Amino acid sequence: MGMMVAARRADAPADEVRYEFGFEDRFDRILVIDPRTSEARVEDGDFDAAASAITAKVVNCWRDRGDFPQRVLFAG
To answer: Are the beta carbons of 48 and 54 closer than 8 angstroms?
Structure first.
């Protein structure tokens, strides 16, 4: 069975970009990405498959478009 992870940009100060994310449309976790290094962390400390998938999607969109997307969806 696949998973569907959705994320929406919550905040983007100069030193980090924050996304609320979760399965389906349950935005119950926070992903933080450093735009200088592309390093990511999850506030709850559990960098699991869902966090990894949505991080890859966000970073790939950012590299392709030059800005961080407002919303992303990973279905796999």
So the answer is: no
Name the pTM for this structure. 0.90
Q: How confident is the model over 31-55, as a mean pLDDT?
A: 95
Residue of 35, 44, 38 whose CA lies nearest to 16: 35
Q: Which of 67, 58, 65, 60 is nearest to 30 (CA)?
A: 58
- Cα(54)–Cα(40) distance, integer angstroms: 10
The residue type found at 41 is: R
When pLDDT is averaged across residues 25-30 and rounded to a whole number, the result is 91
Please report, for the chain, how many H helices and E strands are present, in that order: 1, 5
DSSP classification of residue 6? E
Taking Cα atoms as reference points, which of 39, 75, 54 lies closest to residue 9? 54
Q: What is the pLDDT of residue 11?
A: 84
In 3D space, the residue among 42, 37, 48 whose CA is nearest the CA of residue 18 turns out to be 42
